[in-house]
Amino acid sequence: MPHFPTSYRWQITALLFVATTINYLDRQVISLLKPTLEQVFNWSETDYSHIVMAFQGAYALSFVMFGWSIDRIGAKLGYSISVFVWSLAAMLHAVASGTVSFGVFRAMLGLGEGGNFPASIKTVTEWFPQKERAYATGIFNSGTNIGAVVAPLLVPWLLGNYGWQAAFLATGAIGFIWLFFWWRYYETPTRHRKISPEELSYVNEAPQTSGESSVRWVDLLARRQTWAFITGKLFTDPVWWFFLFWLPSFLASTFKLDLTKPSLPLIIIYSAATIGSVGGGYLSGYFLRRGWTANWSRKTAMFVFALCIVPVMTIQFATSLWVVIGLLSLAVAAHQAWSANLFTLVSDLFPRKAVSSVVGIGGMAGSLGGMLFPLLVGSLLDTYKAQGSIATGYNILFIVCGSAYLVALLSIHLLVPALKPADC
């Protein structure tokens, strides 16, 4: 990795990492408060799934809106709007009075949070050459896990000392602090005063198509490369949402985990995901530096990570909490490693002017899958809970999760067997 008089691109990555951490901290709060809120508001699993669906539906719409707008107004302003909306929405949860109002504020949260990945991938594409993008993406994407690690420490403490409302107020307020630093320190490389000429030349070494006009969605949807990313997100995003929103509840119902106290098992699981995110981005970059093509580098790495998720299907045979924690840790780590490479495919396949739009389209597909999957989850768990065997419902879900990534990778390969860049 070259060294220059400045390495400002890594400071930009740090900003993306912190924002992504806040993003996932805000959305994780409700899953940790779920047992408390179920008692306060008398929620069923189906009620909770409807609240999750409200978030997912708005999140899907937000991906499209921000994906389109960020390619036009830029990452600086687009990201600022996104963080402002989601931080305000997170704080408004404190005044919710029932299922409907929680659904409304979750939808508002989703409308804001959908801007995180289009803005981040756009920024990485602008600030990094191809061989470093997966690694940079893995670093900022690891913020999803740090947020999920911080939440089991912070939220129970806030709940125990100040009540559930304080958990939403405190976590939501953090985003407004980040906004100050983003607005003050971010700019595109060609306009940034602190980047050295050597680093600027290195950042811009990847060839670009002529012109910077945006690409029409109808043209993007006509490309097999777009559908490869859509397919990858559609099959695997719902699995991550399941891990995020239902793992605390699964451990509480199956192993009597007390979610009113800091949870070591959850901290271990999401810490493993952090390692997977950074390591996953590094692995395909390592293959590229060894002279492999982007096609072999990305797909080999993704195949390895897809295989690592398969063992989660064996949770049904595990009787020890720590065996289950090990299997879940491997699965979430592999998902984040997979995700870092899936996002990087967009910058491999599309010019910078189309990156946010494609991320938005694919993110919408993943969110729609994430919106429909809770219908299955809620219905399945309620059915087996009524029969006194909720563990059976979870076992079925883990089988679905364990097989999704191999199916997704096969679909991606059939659509883009050679990772040929789109002509747009």
TrEMBL record:
Its main location: membrane. Residues 12-420 form the Major facilitator superfamily (MFS) profile domain. It is a multi-pass membrane protein. Keywords: Membrane, Transmembrane, Transmembrane helix. The chain crosses the membrane at residues 51-70, 77-96, 162-183, 226-247, 267-288, 300-318, 358-381, 393-416. It is found in: Membrane. It comes from the Bacteria. PANTHER family: HEXURONATE TRANSPORTER, SOLUTE CARRIER FAMILY 17. This is MFS transporter. The lineage of its organism: Bacteria, Pseudomonadati, Bacteroidota, Cytophagia, Cytophagales.
